[in-house]
Fold this sequence. Notes:
- The protein has an eight-stranded mixed β-sheet with strand order 5-4-1-6-9-10-11-12, with helices on both faces. Strands 2-3 form a two-stranded antiparallel sheet. Strands 7-8 form a two-stranded antiparallel sheet.
- It has helices at residues 35-46, 74-84, 129-134, 154-164, 209-225, and strands spanning 10-15, 20-23, 26-28, 50-55, 67-70, 90-93, 100-102, 123-125, 143-150, 169-174, 186-195, 198-208.
- Helix 1 (35-46) crosses helix 5.
- The chain has a single domain (10-98, 124-225), classed as Rossmann fold (3-Layer(aba) Sandwich), CATH 3.40.50.10300.
- It contains five helices and twelve strands.
- The radius of gyration is 19 Å and the shape is globular.
- With 230 residues, it is an alpha/beta fold.
- It binds ligand PMT.
Amino acid sequence: APPTTTPRPRAVITAGPTREALDPVRYLSNHSSGKMGYALAATAVEAGFDTTLISGPVNLATPPGVTRLDVESALEMHEQALRLAPKAALFIGCAAVADYRAEHAAEHKLKKVDEGDTLTLTLTKNPDIIAAVAALEPGERPFVVGFAAETRDVSRYATDKLARKNLDLVVANDVARQGLGFGSDDNAAMLFWRTPAGIESLDAKAQPKRALARLIIDHALSLTVNPDGA
Ligand code: PMT
């Protein structure tokens, strides 16, 4: 008989920025390089996950063993995330998803007009990808890890996200700190999760993104094996 292998649990990770088109040549975006999300994907493979990376536009090589799906906009990332998340054991939303997109992306390049010195753009809200994943039905819902990128009151906003988006673990990074967060090789974060006794936290000091990724995935694994976090 052919050898039987148990299928590996699946991890789905979003990374990088999204690009929201204004017209065929211009977009709204942010400074996410994808480094943190790619470090998580490489680490998930090491931890034994069948790993899919849903990636916004970045200049990084795909880590060995990772299946990579390239997307541009938040709407595309949302579609792929909701297609893949129901089969996953672990979902990590590390992408810096644009909260808004242009209400109407222009079909042709926007022209500069002579009258007036201002141009008004109307933006409309993008769907919240991680909240949609966290709202999946019990049987379909992976363990959901979200990030919180804040520039102040990090723990207050992070614990609010934990509750409001119904996440299992929040990784809060202070993106105003020099040399950490967006684009850098190192990062520091506070981890927040719920226990029957209330919200617990762990302070992960500045370290290479790859080391922080290991800490996050090990922590997520310890919480899925021992959901009370005791
Ligand atoms: O890519 P790097 O240069 O390595 O930088 C890493 C990082 C700073 C981008 C990363 O560590 C990080 O903090 N990512 C989340 C950035 C972010 O958009 O945070 P937020 O606080 O706006 O969003 C909170 C959570 O909701 C995140 O998990 C985000 O992926 C998710 N989200 C947000 C909006 C939206 N429409 N859909 C979402 O799923």
